[in-house]
Write a structure and sequence with these properties.
Oligomer: single chain
Bound molecules: adenosine-5'-triphosphate, magnesium ion
Number of strands: 30
Mean pLDDT: 95
Largest sheet: 9 strands, mixed
Strand content: 25-35%
Number of helices: 16
């Protein structure tokens, strides 16, 4: 490819609305352009990268025996009504009507459509297991589209769905997809971690997320120091290092604390540590069917701990999604402001996090405005119904398997594998006959990769102050040949042409920067660094006069001078894939 005839849309200025390095660099290097919020055009250079990611994903999925299909982006409402998601999906699902007033949506995911396909096409155990995938556009009307293609509204996903006669078969394919995902992200050159994830209300340890480690990541992921435990923050459990407690229980005393509006204020005012305070959060309860009631449920946590809302929302007596009681409701039901709440008998139910169950002589709200108790202890009135785990783990906690301590890092979720069980197959009546002719509801797994997000995540991990540093496997070009002062030197033209032709004939993806004198050498160098092409040769009159060609590996500190007569051998080595 000749730069003079290529849409190299590099820009110098950092776009003002781009917060993350990858978003800035994708715009600056001319990979993408914004059309509207969360909608991006992929320019030629960006599309080359995206294609490479897609090819690797497709290759590994095919190797795993998955079968590629392509389903429509536009989906009829009827299928979503059958699973109930037409009602439950909320505004992320973009709905519209056609000219016949029929309801449709843009597919945010394809469980409904694939299950409809499979219920029609597969009816015998002989056709199972089956794993079907596509690499295709999704639309989600995200509440907060941001970071460019990282959280877009329209994006490309590889989504796969597997169908099985039984759990054992689902387990097998799930494991295989876990292995396949590891192979994909390794080939993409990413530093990634699979972590156990919350599988919603389906239960069990049947979901894993694949995270690319990056400080700009939106998610928190948790690992044990010996690597034997990894989970996302929603799911992670850990032990708190034990704190010595006084065995002599004192009598509680009320203290006026009108100036203390936070745990920090309270600790400063009473000269105590947050670890000896209990904070009380109040949420709405639910009945046996899970329906929200007006009753209030208390959640007690140690002062230095934070509530894990995912864990709390799963508690039997807590309404899901989690809803905090507002001040008015608290005042009416409990007779004080939220800041003065503490354990009492007035709650419909109360859960104590394990961090507080062993505390003695602690500080808590006195259920009376501007008043706290010091030296409180658990008893008949200061009580809880159940001890549970409802806190977010913290750096330094003890790993749940007892092996070492936990570290918390940030990650970008690039993949998600999930055992769905019969959630969709039961709703859509996707059944198959077993060996005995008995009809069985199929079990399902689903497996997603954010293909466009992977490109951004890769840049988050591979860049410096000059631009992108592409891993070899997904670089838009392997080699860039920069012509310097070609208008002054015929030799520069012939030598660079010669190398260009040779590289092309050997199958190297090469960009010849033959832009004319209006583009200065400085701009050409800066562009090559910004775009992040792994190998660069500079052909200049001065170096040719010295019988050398300058070579630089993107990301390396030093340049090398190659004797002109060795350049053919150099290109041949490059073509054979050996790193020079
Ligand atoms: P997130 O928690 O980031 O919103 P999700 O749980 O909604 O992700 P899934 O439904 O599991 O995501 O989708 C599979 C994959 O698609 C994700 O792992 C992610 O890589 C990608 N993805 C999801 N939403 C977006 C988006 N708005 N833009 C780009 N990629 C996305
Ligand atoms: Mg989402």
């Amino acid at each position: 490819m000749r730069a003079s005839q290529y849409l190299l849309a590099t820009v110098k200025e950092t776009p003002s609305d781009a917060e993350t390095a990858s978003h800035q660099l994708m715009i600056r290097a001319g990979l993408i352009r914004k059309l509207a919020t969360g909608l991006y055009t992929w320019l030629p250079l960006g599309l080359r990268v995206l294609r490479k990611v897609t090819d690797i994903v497709r290759d590994e999925m095919d190797k795993a025996g998955a079968m590629e299909v392509s389903m429509p982006v536009v989906q009829p409402a009827e299928l979503w009504l059958e699973t109930g998601r037409w009602q439950t999906m909320g505004p992320e699902l973009l709905r519209f009507t056609d000219r016949h007033e029929r309801d449709f949506c843009l597919g945010p995911t394809h469980e409904e459509v694939i299950t409809d396909l499979v219920r029609n096409e597969i009816n015998s155990y002989r056709q199972l297991p089956a794993n079907l995938y596509q690499i295709q556009t999704k639309f989600r009307d995200e509440r907060r589209p941001r970071f460019g293609v990282m959280r877009a509204r329209e994006f490309t996903m590889k989504d796969a769905y597997s169908f099985h006669m039984d759990q054992a078969s689902l387990d097998q394919t799930y494991q295989q997809m876990h292995t396949t995902y590891s192979a994909i992200f390794s080939r993409l050159g990413l530093d990634f971690r699979p972590v156990a994830a919350d599988s919603g209300n389906i239960g069990g340890n049947t979901s894993h997320e694949f995270h690319v480690l990056a400080d700009s990541g939106e998610d928190e992921i948790v690992f044990s120091s010996d690597g034997s435990y990894a989970a996302n923050m929603e799911m992670a459990t850990g032990g708190l290092p034990p704190l010595p407690q006084e065995s002599t229980l004192r009598a509680p005393q009320e203290v006026a604390t009108s100036d203390a509006h936070s745990i920090e204020d309270l600790c400063a005012f009473l000269s105590v540590e947050a670890t000896s305070c209990i904070k009380t959060l109040v949420v709405l309860g639910c009945d046996a069917e899970g329906e929200k009631t007006g009753e209030l449920v208390a959640l007690f946590l140690r002062g230095d701990q934070t509530l894990n809302e995912t864990k709390a929302a799963k508690l039997t007596h807590v309404a899901s999604p989690l809803e905090f009681a507002d001040d008015e409701l608290i005042q009416k039901a409990l007779g004080c402001k939220p800041g003065a709440l503490g354990p009492s008998t007035k709650f419909a139910y109360s859960y104590a996090d394990h961090s507080v169950t062993d505390l003695t002589n602690f500080v808590c709200g006195a259920n009376k405005d501007d008043t706290h108790l010091v030296d409180a202890n658990w008893d008949d009135t200061t009580r809880f119904h159940e001890a549970v785990d409802i806190r977010c783990v913290q750096e330094g906690d003890i790993s749940p398997d007892g092996k070492g301590t936990l570290a918390v890092k940030r990650g970008i979720e690039v993949g998600h594998i999930f055992q769905l069980g019969d959630k969709y197959s039961a709703a859509l009546k996707a059944t198959a006959l077993d060996e005995n002719g008995k009809s069985v509801v199929m079990s399902m797994g689903c497996y997603g990769i954010g293909v466009t997000r992977v490109v951004a995540a890769c840049i988050e991990q591979n860049h410096d102050q000059h631009g992108i540093i592409w891993p070899e496997n997904i670089a838009p070009f392997q080699l860039v040949i920069v012509q310097v002062d070609a208008h002054k030197s015929e030799l520069v033209c012939t030598v660079s042409e010669d190398i260009y032709q040779l590289a092309q004939s050997l199958g190297i993806e090469v960009l010849l920067d033959d832009r004319d004198k209006k583009t200065s050498p400085g701009v050409k160098f800066a562009d090559s660094e910004l775009i992040g092409i792994p190998h660069r040769l500079v052909i200049s009159p001065r170096s040719l006069a010295d019988g050398v060609i300058e070579y630089k590996r993107r990301g390396a500190d030093d340049k090398q001078l190659l004797a002109t007569e060795t350049i053919h051998a150099f290109i041949t080595t490059l073509a054979s894939g050996a790193d020079s």
